Amino acid sequence: MHIELSKDKRYYSIGEVAKAFNVNASLIRFWDSEFDILKPKKNAKGNRMFTPEDITNLQLIYHLVKERGFTLEGAKIHLKEGQKKTLDKFEIIRKLESIKTQLNEIKNEL
């Protein structure tokens, strides 16, 4: 799972977010209702519009729940107790994965 954040884009629709994470929009809505760190704006129609910060938080939730196997309650506790520390580790992991991908691309070109 990897979503590219555009520097020009301020909001992402729930459909875009669900597609990027390869999950149903209903899961994103559920996570939004369960996790206080998600604060999407709602347009006039009531549709959720996610900010880049929300996307980063969704990546963290996805990582904890889907990749590391945390329960929702476990993920909530983990986020509340060490959000900054967890986010820093998460960012390091994502950067290393990106570097690994780039190195593999270079290797394949040799």
From TrEMBL:
- Give residue ranges for domain HTH merR-type: 11-81
Its recorded name reads DNA-binding transcriptional regulator, MerR family
Q: Sorted alphabetically, which Pfam families does this protein's record hold?
A: MerR_1
Asked whether the UniProt record includes Methyltransferase among its keywords, one would answer no
**Which segment of the chain is annotated as a signal peptide?**
none
Keyword set, alphabetical order: DNA-binding
One GO term in the molecular function aspect is: DNA binding
Q: Which InterPro entries match?
A: DNA-bd_dom_put_sf, MerR-type_HTH_dom, MerR_fam
